[in-house]
Every structure is written in C-alpha cells, then in structure tokens.
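Hi P.,

Sorry for the delay on this. The queue was packed all week, but I finally got your sequence through. Input first:
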Amino acid sequence: MSPPEKSIRVMDADYITRTLNRIAYEILEKNRTLKDLALVGIRSRGVPLARRLAEKLKEITGTVPPVGELDINLYRDDLSRIAYHPVLKTTEIPFDIDDKVVVLVDDVLFTGRTIRSALNALMDLGRPSWVQLGVLVDRGHRELPVRADYIGKNVATSKSQDVIVHLAELDKVDEVVIADTPEGVS
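Then the structure:
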C-alpha cells in the first residue's frame, strides 16, 4: 500500500517495532507486575497494537496479559453525523475488568473524543481499578482533557492533515504517514 501523494512517512516498520518494545517496558515499569493488568484495544487498529504489546510483555516477563477488543461506535458523540446506521463490530473482552489495571490501546490520539467514548464503553462493562492509555501517535489538537500514559511518537500536525496508520495485520504494511487532507474533505 503506497502513501498518498502529498504525504510524509514518520514511522516505518522497524520504528513501530522499537516503539512498541519501549512502550511495553514503560507499562512494566509503571505497573511493576502484570498481575491484574489487561490490554484492551480500541477497534480497529488499537486491537493489533494491543496484541503486539501483549506479545512484547510476554517476551520480557514470560507472562502474557489478557487482551480484549472494544467497539465504541454506539458511544460516539458524532454518531448522527457519520451514519444513520453505524457498522457495529463486536466488543470481545473475555475476562472480568473489575479491579483490573486496564491499558486502553489506540493508534492515534487526536481530539480525545474516541477515548471518551472508549471510557464510557469500558465503564459499562465493569469498574477497573485504574485505566491507562497507550497510543502509537499523539498528534495534538485536544478538545477534551485527555492525556496518554504511553506515547509512541508525538507528531506535530495541522488540523488539515491526516495521520494514517497502516498495520500489517490489516493493511499488509507497517507505517505511519502524515497526509494533507484532500480539499473538501474534513
């Protein structure tokens, strides 16, 4: 998959691998143990990132934390703007999140609205003792008071740009590119 014409690659496959390795060590350092820790990926690209982090944590500690998948479509505050009939995917969290340290994982942190939706969806499933946030890219432009605990890369963007994350599990390639939004699209 090739990047759009006016784009800049800011992360390649090796960079993403090194970044996830660093984040795994940061998770372990902050929590000291994987006991009662779970990773929950926000669909869609947060899921493979959460799985990769779980594998990195297994390589480091010998223990793999449980991984869940969270669909936030019904919790979005822009639902009426994006579709009358949203495409619903499944939330698959095959473990109890009560009293767990849950690390929410997503690809890009932008306005904070996705994370707000994810927190609402998560709280409908139980009461974690602590929710942490890990993102591959933080591009700024927050509209809500949301801050990530683990950040792969801070990227300065304008609001007229897109941050596009491609992951091998979904896109056959690992990369992050910044692209100018085509005129007329926001």
